[in-house]
Amino acid sequence: MESEKFERLWQDLKTQRDELNLQMHLAKAELKDEWAELEDKYAVAQRKFEELKKDSGEIASDVKNTLNVLADEMGEAYQRVKVRLKHQ
Fold first, then answer.
1. How much is the pLDDT for 11?
2. What is the reported pLDDT for 58?
3. Angle (nearest 5°) at CA 45 between 48 and 16
4. Which of 2, 31, 58, 78 could form a disulfide with 27 if both were Cys (CB 3.0 to 4.6 A apart)?
5. How many domains does the chain have?
C-alpha cells in the first residue's frame, strides 16, 4: 500500500514536471533560474525514490516523512511556476 502511494505521488510530480518543462522554453530568465533549481531537487528526489523502490524492506518512517515533505515542497514549487507561466 505504501509503495502504491509513493508511486502515485511520484507519478503526479513527474507529470507536473513534464508539462511545465514543455512551457519553459518561453519563460523569462528569472523563471528559468527557479526551474534550474527545481531540476536539481528533482534529480536528487528521483535518485532517492529509485533507491526506495529497490528496497524490499519496510521504509523507515523518517524516510517516508522526508519524502512526503520533499514531494509537497516540489509540488508547491511546480504550482508556483505554472501560475507564473500563465501570467507571462
1. 92
2. 61
3. 140
4. 31
5. 1
